[in-house]
Amino acid sequence: MKKEEIIALLPYSDPFLFVDQLISISDDAVSGTFTFKVDSFFYRGHFRNNPITPGVILTECMGQIGLVCLGIFILHVEKGSTNPTFAMSGTKINFYAPVYPGETVTVQSQKIYFRFNKLKCEVQMLNSENVVVAKGTIDGMLRESILE
Amino acid sequence: MTSEEIFALLEPIIKTYLPQDVSAQEINRSSDLTRELNINSAHLVDIILDIEDVFNIEFKNEDMEKLRNVDDAIILIQQKISS
After folding, report:
1. Does B41 sit within 8 Å of A115, measured CB to CB?
2. What is the DSSP letter of A65?
3. pLDDT at position A146, please?
4. Does residue B61 carry a pLDDT above 70?
5. B48: nearest CA partner in chain A
6. Model-level pTM?
7. Name one Pfam family in it (chain A) (predicted).
8. What is the pLDDT of residue B2?
C-alpha cells in the first residue's frame, strides 16, 4: 500500500485534515509531517492577538498520523480492508513547547498493541528543530468495512 | 480455581473501567458487561488485557464473541486455566 493511498483514505478534509505527507510506514510504526497554515481558523481565537496552535489540534494531528494512518495500513495488510472507520477512545498527551503558525511538525508513532480492534500507540511530535513538543499515548477502535 | 475465586480477582478489574454513573455494587455474575455495566468497546479490550495479565492466559478474537456477561468471562478463564 502506497503512502499516498493511505492519505487518500483518510476520512478528513480541510479545515480538519492534519496530514501532509507520510515519511515512513510499517505494521508497527509510522511517521509523517504537517505544516500548520498561518491562516488556519483556530488562530483567530487561540489566543486573541497571540496565535498558538491549540493542544487539541496538536493531539488531533498526532491522532490522524499516528493512529489513523497506521490503522489504515494495518487493517489493509491484515484484512484487506479498504474503507476502515475509526473512533478515538483515549488520549494521554503531555505538551512541552508551543507550536506557532506556519511551523512544520513531524509525528512519530510506535504501536503498543493492536488487539480486538483496539489500536494503542506511543506518539510524539517534533518541531523543525527536532525538539519534542508533545508526547503520549493515543488509542482508538478500528472497524473494517470492505467496499465492494 | 473455583468460580468464586475467579470472580474475586475479576471484580476489581471490571471496577476500574466502570463509567461514573454505574456503581461497583452492580457487578454480579449475571451482569452484561456492555449493556448493563455500560462498559464501552475500548474498555472491554482493557478488561481482557488485564485478565490476560492477572490469569496468565491469552484470549483470541473468537473468545470475544462468547463474552457477554461476567459469568461468560469466568467460564472462559476457567477453560483457559485448565487447558
Report:
1. no
2. I
3. 52
4. yes
5. A116
6. 0.93
7. FabA
8. 94
Split into its structural domains, chain B has a count of 1
Which residue range is the domain that position B54 belongs to?
3-82
Whether the CB of A143 is below 8 Å from some CB of chain B: the reply is: no
Domain harbouring B64, CATH code: 1.10.1200.10
**DSSP, residue by residue, B6-26:** HHHHHHHHHHHT--TTS-GGG
Q: Would you state the cell numbers that stand for residue A56, as one nine-digit string?
A: 487539541
Q: Per-residue confidence at A26, pLDDT binned at 50, 70, 90?
A: very high
CATH class of residue range A3-143? alpha beta
Q: Residue ranges of the domains in chain A?
A: 3-143
A15 and A40 in contact (C-beta within 8 Å)?
Answer: yes
Residue A61 · residue A107 · CB < 8 Å: yes
Strand A118-126 with A132-143, pairing: antiparallel
Grid cell at residue A86 = 475509526
Assembly ipTM: 0.90
